[in-house]
Amino acid sequence: MVAPTYDALKLPPHVKTVLVSGAGGFVGQQLVQLLLSLFKDIKIIATDIVEPPNHGITDSKRLRCVKADLGKEAELKGLFDGEKVDGVFALHGVMSGGAEANFPLGYAVNVDSNLNLLKYTHTHAQSTLSEGDPRPIYVFVSSLAVYGGPKCRPQDYVVPKDTPIIPGSSYGVQKTIMELYVYDYGRKGYLNTRSVRLPTVAIRPGAPSSAASSFISGLIREPLQGVEAICPIASSLDDPALDDMPFWCSRTKTVVRNIAWALCMPESNFGEGEGRSINIPGIKVRPRQIVEALVEHGGKDKLSLVKFQKDQAVINICKTWAGEYDNTDFLKMGFEADDTETGFGLAVKDFKEELAKEASQT
Ligand SMILES: NC(=O)c1ccc[n+]([C@@H]2O[C@H](COP(=O)([O-])OP(=O)(O)OC[C@H]3O[C@@H](n4cnc5c(N)ncnc54)[C@H](O)[C@@H]3O)[C@@H](O)[C@H]2O)c1
Question: Start and end of every NAD-dependent epimerase/dehydratase domain (predicted)?
Fold first, then answer.
């Protein structure tokens, strides 16, 4: 697939108000923009611990932006007061490197505050719905970091249904814990739930995140703006790690389309007795391809801005990620994948266009 498609993205009729947490973050901002452009007659409640952007929308019936810490009960409840929330995208969180470096913070945000949001969505549904009404659709945004263990190394090809969940990081454990809660709320019929595990999303704009995979975007983002970038997994351009440590990535546009589809797709996509977790499709990208894409889209001189400095903490986390996953089951469910040959280059092209747009606005 060369570009994501949007024709299938139709909200179930009962979905009139959708809450997006983490709406001030990278993926959350893109998701809110897509929802605003696709669904003209719904209300979006965009929330984050930092003030979420309003994307130029001042009509609070279309977009209500709320700065709230979801770890604080009163702030969480305030989001739902006076609303009837029919859909939730739970995106807020602390990224992998951050959760590994700060154990209590990772659990407080990635588990405790996420569980609060799940529980409160159920409480809200109980107080706003009548018997037989369709339940709110709850999409929890997880990560492929739930996989790890001996069958998930950079050289491995993971067939999801044959692969146990053995996370290799606290972040992965936290996402797994939440997936189980989300599954159980669905199994009990409390909410209509789905978890979507994202691959590494490229290219992330702005400042580097605390994700261990942050350098994948950084190797493009920083040099294209004349700034040095560190490649933490190799000591030079000749290092075999540039070929031996592939990453499983997806273009931002494709990921965001797939997250939106997770709310639109029928619950019957999950078979009887199956789990409720979905691997968002990705493509295999070797670090050398990233460096080559930098040269192709930015020019050979940009290579001098890449500094090869191995960082064992980053390598240790990256070694727990598989380089390739089987997308088959998830493509059948209506999720889309980038083209293996052109996908990463298109992600770089999207990012260059964003930079050009920003430059023309200043
Ligand atoms: N970007 C990726 O490559 C990637 C890959 C796998 C999974 N994910 C998952 O996707 C989701 C979005 O990722 P992202 O890249 O946009 O991350 P991000 O860091 O840009 O956004 C996360 C947002 O959560 C907010 N947040 C943190 N603590 C909060 C709290 N207590 N209350 C309210 N908001 C809080 C942050 O302010 C931030 O804006 C996350 O759950 C992440 O784990 C992302």
Answer: 18-226
pLDDT, position 172: 95
Alpha-carbon span 105 to 171, nearest angstrom:
11
Is there a domain that residue 42 lies in? yes
- For residue 272, the model assigns a pLDDT of 81
- Closest C-alpha residue for ligand 1 atom 38: 25
> What residues contact residue 241 under an 8 Å CB cut-off, 6+ apart?
233, 234, 287
* Domain residue limits at 57: 17-199+252-281+325-334
Tell me, yes or no, whether 119 lies in a domain: yes
223: closest CA among 296, 286, 283, 282?
296
Closest approach atom of ligand 1 to CA 24:
39
CATH of the domain at 133: 3.40.50.720
CA of 180 to the centre of ligand 1 (A): 19
β-partners of residue 247 are 285
pLDDT of residue 212: 80
The model's confidence at residue 359, banded by pLDDT at 50, 70 and 90, is confident
List 18's β-bridge partners, or say none: 44, 87
Global pTM exceeds 0.90: yes
Count the domains in the chain.
Answer: 1
Does ligand 1 come within 6 angstroms of the Cβ of 70?
A: yes
196 bridge partner residues: 141, 278
Phi/psi at 103 (5° precision): -55, -50
Look up residue 247 and give its DSSP letter: E
Structure tokens at 361: 């606005």
Instruction: Using CA atoms of 281, 103, 101, 245 in order, give the dihedral in degrees to the nearest 10.
Output: -30
- Between the CA of 169 and the centroid of ligand 1 the distance, in Å, is 16
**Catalytic site includes residue 183:** no
Protein residue closest via CA to atom 19 of ligand 1: 25
pLDDT at 317 over 90: no
